[in-house]
Design a protein that fits this description.
alpha/beta; Rossmann fold; ten-stranded mixed sheet; 32 helices; binds pyridoxal-5'-phosphate; Glycg_phsphrylas; Pyridoxal_P_attach_site; Alpha-1,4 glucan phosphorylase; transferase; carbohydrate metabolism
């Protein structure tokens, strides 16, 4: 695509769409104009990709996830289309800054954190690897709440992300399906002597899909992320006259539950789950039927992935359609279901394992409940005599009046994977050991990954430039080629160039911090970053205790030889998570205390940036020197911000948890700061019940002093929250062993402090982190899913022989 051509097209489209010239248009109008040129350019490939999958009878995977967290799509689509530089320059020549247009786009936040972001990294990689795979989820009217701080407290505001429309989605009315809820169901013999369900009462809603193109990186492949929105079917308009009646329906796709580990608003949540499961499975089966094959072969054409347990009802819904509507026998349907379904477990925290009460599921989706009951009955019957009775009792789906969704997902699928080596091992040896005994071959590991291009080429253009100049550009499409950078670990020019790029990013972040917080931070300080959801197990509190320790050290000895440090936090707390909100308040008050204390001579700053989301992550990560990954060992299934930060040359300070272990294996012990209890030691404490946090408090004078600051007025304005945190640590015996890891953490931080001051060594460590990040590309991860779990194969760009699109870039 040529710049001149683009400029002419842009002006023409702006005139057609808004009857305007560039000089009159707002950033939003310009953004929409650009968006419409882009979607028009890839829509043909989108259609073609779909047709190719159908014509070539490609097996396709469907990734069911109750959350997607794509962030902004403008620049990422431009990059993948091969347009980024041309468009940026062409716009510039018209006096338009691409950055200003990117500002306008709302950050699409239909997810809470890691789980949803993983789903979106996968969408990018699946398309970029030319794999036939699509997303299936919910189009929430309101995304994750926007976070503000008022008086240091988190305040939640609604995220009205659709207010100005959405350039990337297409409403596909023709692909709508009906979803039935509630009422009574009983079985009756039909004309062919088959038991069929008869429904009484309940209500039906229409699920309308909104499709978003998932543009592959320079390969002319455009897959689909299909998000479902609820509507009242025209035939039912009369039933829903009042605003309240309509609201009950509309609520179904209104809000994302702002918590990925505890469930609330339970009935609505369950209804959301059934809604997108039923709509997705129905539309897949409708497509399959059009292909004209018998159901016997469906597993050769369709793979359905259950991302965490929220879509676990896929198992029962798939069964329902096969046996109730397609006259497939139970036994045959069950065999096919297992072959089609696969499941990813994302947590080992018992309180996050999803369960539903029988009455609630009967109320929301009675036929699904009946099917689950029958699956459970047959499971017990089939296992009796094969497995010990107590094992069967522990693994069956329905126990004590509750439906265990993980059990349903494992029993009803052929693959269960964890998301990092340690996590997958713990699933096998502890959390899901009973299932592992029964189905050893179903268990496997797929370490998470990140969309490498977004987190480097888009977020960190200064580093990308250095990399491209040093090792060429092959790493852009082959992430593992970033390894060539290892050849330059002794090259001072490269080391300096990377350090210069980092410095540039820090200058930018410092300006942003000044703008939004009014805090002066020096780009020469160490930027120490902890960004992730606020959760007790992630231990933001441990970070804070160390900050307090440094503060006291400096108060005592203002000449202390520490390199100046800026501690940067980004974290949302679930609105109902009281403790997490107290930690936010306390961090904000510590920030006030430290940032306004002139006596410490700017050696310490604490910055809590509000409203952590993908866009903020893209600002912070390129500027990070230190990556805080300090969860209690065994609690973080994988983590992915650890990978993003590593890729951007931050040095990790970490416990041996989740993918941190694999990061250590990749960079070597000398290029990461590991500390703290191991998973084995944590489990030993659990077994021996001999952890005693008060002892640590009483015996460690540093800890004593730091903790007292929470309740003795040293940290102002936290009378209540300080006490609450103190109680969690002492009265409730410190569930996440914060005090136990404190001393080791301080030592590791001191190593960081010293290494940073050895500038050359630090630059080398940083380079080695970047060079070894390739293995964490989600391109890699999805290829493993494709080969081992879904059995789908890459397609080659349909028009690669057509000349025009040979290089994977798009024509206007
Ligand atoms: C990557 C990412 C996460 C996940 O962070 P973890 O540290 O792995 O928990 C959460 N939120 C956003 C916005 C992200 O980009």
């Amino acid at each position: 695509m040529e710049k001149t051509e683009f400029k002419a097209k842009f002006k023409k489209r702006l005139a057609e769409k808004f009857a305007m010239e560039v000089s009159d248009a707002s950033a939003n109008e310009l953004y929409q104009t650009l968006g419409s040129i882009m979607t028009a350019a890839y829509s043909q490939d989108w259609q073609q990709t779909w047709q190719d999958y159908r014509d070539q009878e490609q097996k396709q995977a469907y990734y069911f996830s109750i959350e997607f967290l794509p962030g902004k799509m403008l620049k990422s689509n431009l990059l993948n289309m091969g347009w980024l530089e041309t468009v940026e320059e062409a716009l510039q020549e018209m006096g338009i800054s691409l950055e200003d247009l990117a500002e306008v786009e709302p950050d699409m936040a239909l997810g809470n954190g890691g789980l949803g972001r993983l789903a979106s990294c996968f969408m990018d990689s699946i398309a970029s690897c030319g794999l036939p795979g699509n997303g299936n989820g919910i189009r929430y009217e309101y995304g994750l709440f926007k976070q503000r701080f008022v008086d240091g407290y988190q305040v939640e505001l609604p995220d009205e992300w659709l207010q100005k429309g959405n350039s990337w989605e297409i409403r596909k009315e023709s692909k709508a399906v009906d979803v039935h809820f509630g009422g009574n169901v009983y079985l009756q013999k039909d004309g062919k002597d088959q038991l069929k369900p008869v429904y009484e009462g309940g209500y039906t809603v229409r699920a309308v899909p909104y499709d978003t193109g998932m543009v592959g990186y320079k390969n002319n492949i455009v897959n689909t992320m299909r998000l479902w929105s609820v509507e009242i079917p025209a035939e039912e308009e009369d039933r829903y006259r009042s605003i309240e009646d309509r609201r009950v329906i509309e609520d179904l796709t209104s809000v994302l539950y702002p918590d990925d580990s505890n469930q609330e608003g339970r009935k609505l949540r369950l209804s959301q789950e059934y809604f997108f499961v039923s709509a997705g499975v129905q539309s897949i089966l409708r497509y399959y039927k059009r292909l004209g094959y018998s159901f016997d072969q469906i597993n050769q054409y369709i793979a359905i992935h259950i991302n965490d347990t929220h879509p676990a009802m896929c198992v029962a819904e798939f069964m329902r359609i096969l046996i109730d509507e397609e006259d497939v026998s139970w036994e045959k349907a069950w065999n096919l279901t297992i072959k089609v379904m696969s499941y990813t477990n994302h947590t080992i925290m018992a309180e996050a394992l999803e369960k539903w009460s029988i009455p609630m599921m009967q109320e929301v989706c009675p036929r699904i409940y009946q099917i689950i009951e029958e699956i459970d009955r047959r499971f017990v019957k089939d296992m009796t005599g094969v497995q010990p009775a107590d094992l069967i009792e522990r693994t069956r789906i329905i126990q004590n009046g509750q439906i265990h969704m993980a059990n349903l997902a494992i029993i009803g699928s052929h693959s269960t994977n964890g998301v990092a080596k340690l996590h997958s091992d713990l699933l096998k040896s502890v959390v899901l050991n009973d299932f592992y005994v029964m189905y050893p071959t179903r268990f496997n590991n797929k370490t998470n990954g990140i969309a490498q291009r977004r987190w480097s080429q888009l977020a960190n253009r200064s580093m990308t430039k250095v990399l491209n100049e040093t090792i060429g550009t092959s790493w852009n499409s082959h992430p593992e080629d970033i390894r060539f950078l290892m050849n330059f670990a002794e090259d001072d020019k490269v080391l300096d160039a990377l350090a210069e790029a980092k410095h540039e990013n820090k200058v930018k972040l410092a300006a942003y911090i000044k703008k939004v917080k009014g805090i002066d931070v020096s780009p020469d300080a160490i930027f120490d970053v902890q960004i992730k959801r606020l959760h007790a197990y992630k231990r933001q509190l441990l970070n804070l205790l160390h900050i307090m320790k440094l503060y006291f050290d400096l108060k005592e000895n203002p000449k202390l030889a520490i390199h100046p440090r800026v501690f940067i936090f980004g974290a949302k707390a679930a609105p109902s998570y009281h403790y997490a909100k107290s930690v936010i308040k306390v961090i904000n008050e510590v920030a006030n205390l430290i940032n306004n204390d002139a006596s410490i001579d700017n050696k310490l700053k604490v910055v809590f940036l509000a409203n952590y989301n993908v866009t903020l992550a893209e600002r912070i990560i390129p500027a990070a020197d230190v990556s805080e990954q300090i969860s209690l060992a065994s609690k973080e299934a994988s983590g992915t911000s650890n990978m993003k930060l590593m890729l951007n040359g931050a040095v990790t300070i970490a416990t041996l948890d989740g993918a941190n272990i694999e990061i250590r294996d990749a960079v070597g012990d000398e290029n990461i700061a590991i500390f703290g209890l191991t998973e084995t030691e944590v489990y030993r404490y659990y077994q021996e019940h001999n952890y005693n946090s008060s002892e640590l408090y009483h015996n460690d004078p540093v800890l004593h002093k730091v903790l007292n600051a929470f309740v003795d007025g040293t940290i102002p304005n936290i009378a209540f929250e300080g006490q609450e945190i103190m109680d969690s640590l002492l009265k409730y015996n410190d569930e996440f062993f914060v005090l136990r890891d404190f001393a080791a953490y301080c030592d590791a931080q001191e190593t960081i402090n010293q290494n940073y001051q050895d500038r050359r060594r630090w630059k080398q460590i940083s380079l080695k982190n970047i060079a070894n990040a390739g293995r964490f590309s989600s391109d890699n991860t999805v290829k493993r899913y494709a080969e081992d779990i879904w059995q789908i194969e890459p397609v080659f760009a349909h028009n690669s022989e057509k000349g025009a699109n040979q290089h994977g870039t798009y024509l206007l």
